[in-house]
Amino acid sequence: MPNKLTTEYRFFLSMPHNMRVLLITNMLYALVLPVVEIFMAAYIMRYFADTSYVAIFQVAMYTGIIITSLTNGFLLKRFKVAHLYSFGILLSGLSMAGMMFIKDITLVGLIISGTLIGAASGFFWTNRYLMALNSTSDENRNYFFGLESFFFTISNIGVPLAIGALLVSIDGTHLFGIDFSIYSGYRIVTLIVFAITILACFSLARGKFTNPVQKDFLYFRFNRLWNKQIVLAILKGLVQGFLVTAPAMLIMKYVGKEGSLSLIQAVSGGLTAILLYLLGRFAKPKHRIIIFGFGITLFLIGTIVNGIELSMAGVMVFVLCKVFFQPLHDLAYFPIMMKVIDVVSKKENRNQYAYILNHEFGLYTGRVIGLGLFILLALVVSETFALRYSLIIVAAIQLLSIPLAKNIMKDSYSVEP
After folding, report:
1. Do the domain assignments include residue 212?
2. Domain containing 224 — which CATH number?
């Protein structure tokens, strides 16, 4: 066993320097993401006791991503990509702190907080895509995203368990003359998150990342191959919003408190992490469609079970399938997207960030449509109906991604960059 671990470590060291720095930085930030993705929704659900407020928060967050993705394009002309990435990491911690330490959250405050957290995500994700694109090649991207997903999955196990234990243990505790509540626990978590974001920034400073040479980045007409990729991004965005909000909504409503959420994530996370690492290590570019299709099919099965049995058992099956689906989907999706950017950016002689920005608009379109569907069903029919059937609808539509992704891969490898 030690020999195998040594072999894997040496393989990691054989990767380009910037790729290793980016992976280590993302490993640190992986400790922050579960707080943003899971416990922010749980916190809002607990505070407002209404799932529609979670959906409103998500729309505000996704709008913030679009605003800063556009702003980031202009800032790249003056600032280093690594500095903008670090700013996004720090802003995420500051935004969470601002929301957690406000005593009375109004609807307007919720929208502002969501927009600010989205703004942080916009700086983080768009600059991450750009650095990953320039630090990797098509041959090692499976490994990059497999190892990154391994970190994220392990964090999705350990962080919720630790936070869940903290929230349960601190509620009602009296220490140093202070009465602690569950909201005090959320604030402590936020301070820890901010400390981790600072460490991630120090880690990133060890890399040597370059900005795009071509400065123009705003275009409205693209190559036909890229237009196909945008349709795939819309389909991804359609289900992506639900992956952030639905688990917290379902678990808080049908299973129990945050501690239950942590336990469910941990049950399937360990196996998923090992699977992701092995796939990233040994899978070839030709295997991406198989991974992609398997993940989507598994997600559809989870939503159907949840729809038939909207109870603790059904929710647990759905979350188990979701824990497998999301990293498998990303492991295949992002290398496909980056291969397309490699091809079309050289063919059209354009700034790579032009495609990253346009990709964010595609994701945003899908996210708004998906969350709009949930809100519409919740208002017109009922919240229970929305939780039961909206997931099945978006999962079924997601099946269209499989033949589309296959066609995109075929075209991207048949065109000389």
Report:
1. no
2. 1.20.1250.20
Q: How many domains does the chain have?
A: 1
Angle between helices 81-100 and 107-135 (to 10 degrees): 150
Q: Is residue 304 part of a domain?
A: yes
DSSP secondary structure string for all residues of 29-50: HTTTHHIIIIIHHHHHHHHH--
Alpha helix locations (H) across 309-351? 312-348
Residue 61 burial by CB count (10 A; 0-12/13-18/19+): exposed, middle or buried?
A: buried
The residue behind tokens 């040597």 is 208
Q: Which residue has the tokens 């038939």?
A: 308
Average pLDDT, integer, range 101-118: 76
Q: How many residues does the chain have?
A: 417
Q: Which domain, by its residues, includes 288?
A: 15-206+217-414
pLDDT digits (tens, 9 = 90+) for 232-252: 999 999 888 666 666 666 766
Residue 3 lies in a domain: no
Tokens linked to 47? 């505070």
Cα(119)–Cα(66) distance, rounded to whole angstroms? 8
- Each residue's pLDDT tens digit, 202-243: 888 888 888 887 777 888 889 999 999 999 999 999 888 666
Q: Does the pLDDT value for residue 407 go beyond 90? A: yes
| Residue 1 located in a structural domain | no
Please report the DSSP string for 273-290 in residue order. Answer: HHHHHHHHHH--GGGHHH
| pTM summary value | 0.83
Q: What values do phi and psi take at 178, rounded to 5?
A: -120, 135
Tell me the C-alpha distance between 147 and 143, whole Å: 6
Long-range CB pairs of 339-343, under 8 A, 24+ apart, other chains included:
339/138, 339/141, 339/285, 339/409, 339/412, 339/413, 340/225, 340/226, 340/229, 340/408, 340/412, 341/133, 342/133, 342/138, 342/412, 342/417, 343/225, 343/412, 343/415, 343/417
